[in-house]
Design goal:
9 helices, mainly alpha, 51% helix, three-stranded antiparallel β-sheet, Arc Repressor Mutant, subunit A
């Protein structure tokens, strides 16, 4: 299918996005990576992708008229473009985020997943984003997230090496940022102040082996927990896909 694109562009910072804009961009990212044979998307396909029940939080019910307004706004900001098949009449839509941001393929998948579902723990995020672009390990995920945090596109609830940490995109509107629980406030530059000890501290020679053992045990436990969370997320995604296939078969059979 030969496509005629609108324009090219320079690297830019995306800035705040509305809830509907985030959903549209998230869907365009997802479909470009998971079903490239059907991409770019028609308006109808985009509406279906926005409103599907799997891998979306919250579930939406946008109509095509709403989405046309959102697409116009995103096009004016250079984030999407309309393309046409050679000789065709139906416009199709593609995102331009690889053109206007410095994101890697893995970072594009991570941002797409965060735009579709919001805050997540690392194990969940790696499992879900890996269906769009390979992220082999949690260490690979942390590396990509650290770069996105430096670019101010991602926020976290704490140091990425700690257990139970959540991450989210940082593209909320100003009104959303004022709501409790929306923005995660951790900064990598923050230092945690240790409480004063009542007793005299142990010497370096005495405390070093014990400290190393505690750190090693904590790191191992954290990695095992995140791996387990990743496996659970994989199972959930598999169940979702099976349920969708069953629903599709039932519709075809008229059950």
């Amino acid at each position: 299918m030969q496509l005629v694109d609108e324009n090219d562009g320079d690297i830019q910072f995306l800035g705040a996005l509305s809830k509907k804009e985030r959903r549209v961009l998230g869907v365009l990212i997802e479909k470009s990576l998971t079903t490239p044979e059907y991409y770019p998307l028609t308006l109808k396909a985009l509406a279906t992708g926005c409103n599907q029940k799997s891998n979306r939080d919250p579930i939406s019910n946008y109509d095509e008229f709403e989405l046309e307004d959102i697409l116009d706004g995103l096009r004016q900001r250079g984030m999407i473009s309309a393309v046409q098949t050679a000789g065709g009449r139906t416009e199709r839509y593609r995102h331009r985020l690889r053109d206007i941001t410095p994101w890697t393929a893995a970072q594009l998948a991570i941002m797409g997943e965060l735009l579709l579902r919001g805050r997540q723990q690392l194990g969940e995020l790696r499992s879900r984003a890996s269906r769009m672009s390979a992220i082999e390990s949690l260490e690979d995920l942390r590396r990509e997230l650290n770069q996105l945090m430096q670019m101010k596109y991602v926020q976290s609830s704490g140091d990425l090496n700690r257990r139970g940490i959540e991450v989210d995109h940082a593209l909320y509107t100003e009104a959303e940022q004022s709501r409790p629980g929306t923005m995660l406030t951790y900064s990598a530059d923050e230092e945690i102040e240790e409480p004063a000890k009542a007793s005299a501290p142990a010497t370096a020679a005495e405390s070093k082996p014990e400290s190393q053992a505690v750190i090693a045990e904590t790191t191992t436990s954290s990695e095992e927990l995140l791996d387990l969370q990743s496996e659970i997320s994989d199972l959930r995604e598999t169940v979702q896909r099976l349920e969708e296939r069953i629903e599709s078969l039932e519709r075809q059979l008229g059950i």
